[in-house]
Amino acid sequence: MKTAVTLCRVPESAAGPFVFHDPLDAGFAKAAALGYDAVELFLEGPDALPVEEIQALQKQHGLAIAAVGTGAGMVKHGLSLTDPSPEKRAAALDFVLRMIDFGGRLGAPAILGSMQGKWGGPVTRDQALDFLTAALKSAGEAAAHHGVPFIYEPLNRYETNLFNRLAPAADYLDQRGLTNIVLLADLFHMNIEERDIAAALREASRHVGHVHWADSNRQAMGLGHTDPAPIFAALREISYSGYLSAEIFPLPDSDTAASQTLKSLSTSP
Ligand code: LER
Ligand code: MN
């Protein structure tokens, strides 16, 4: 398993669950100095920075890009793939596809989190799932051109009503025949929604492709009440070889959150 830490440069998400909010060069330097394998990037959009600038930082600091988030499409532009408006859905998909190309050029998959939206109002659950399916089909195909998957993230009930748990999301991917899509197991969301986090990872193991490594209170693992031992054992058992990425609040401060995360991984049985 590989380690990653989040680096956010979206002003609207300044209070969000991201470890570093520094300029990229400072964030890369801190991640590398601590010994992380990769950074996970949350940027304003696919044109926020030239890809070459990020590639130069990767080379300078010896870091991979674990993934790129698409959340700015929602927090900055209010875009959702399940919006009642066809024009807005098209704009959302365009944003996601451009993020996939941006990440793909860095060897990184893109993540669909808040841009999945919610069903309700004029959009029934079935319609929303049809919209989501069409978008995931395009996204999986676009990501395949870069040799990376596309990451779909079930979120807790306060953020979406599409999929809150891993197993129903895994079944949905199978039922709809969606390929090149992996699931993101965010331990913060899972702590709210799953009966047993380790069991949920085992049950959906065929589709688990990325992990947000967070304690129950969305702080660094070890600063809340999640027991990481059975989770770590489950990840080993399913031969998970992807990233454990710290998408957490910078509490008590960024540096402590980043180093506590690594400590929680090095002391895992
Ligand atoms: C994104 O990875 C996430 O976990 C969401 O809570 C952000 O809205
Ligand atoms: Mn997450």
How is this structure best described in words?
This protein has an eight-stranded parallel barrel, surrounded by six helices. The model has no long low-confidence stretch (mean pLDDT 97). The protein starts with a strand and ends with a helix. By secondary structure, it is α/β, with parallel strands linked by helices. The protein has a single domain, classed as TIM Barrel. The chain is built from ten helices and eight strands. Helix 1 runs parallel beside helix 2, helix 4 packs parallel to helix 5 and helix 8 runs parallel beside helix 9. The protein binds L-Erythrulose and manganese (II) ion (MN). The site of L-Erythrulose has 10 residues, from loops.
Estimate the mean pLDDT confidence: 97
State the end-to-end distance: 13 Å
Radius of gyration from the CA trace?
Answer: 17 Å
CATH level 3 topology: TIM Barrel
User: Shape from CA axes?
Assistant: globular
Question: Proportion of β residues?
Answer: 5-15%
The percent range for helix content is 40-55%
Unreliable spans are: none
Computed structural class: alpha/beta
Quaternary structure classification: single chain
The major β-sheet equals:
8 strands, parallel, barrel
> Order of SSEs, N→C?
EHEHEHHEHEHEHHEHEH
- Biggest sheet strand order reads 1-2-3-4-5-6-7-8
Please, how many helices?
10
Strand runs, count: 8
The CATH superfamily is identified as Divalent-metal-dependent TIM barrel enzymes
According to CATH, what is the class?
Alpha Beta
Total individual domains: 1
CATH arch. level architecture: Alpha-Beta Barrel
| Bound molecule kinds, no repeats | L-Erythrulose, manganese (II) ion
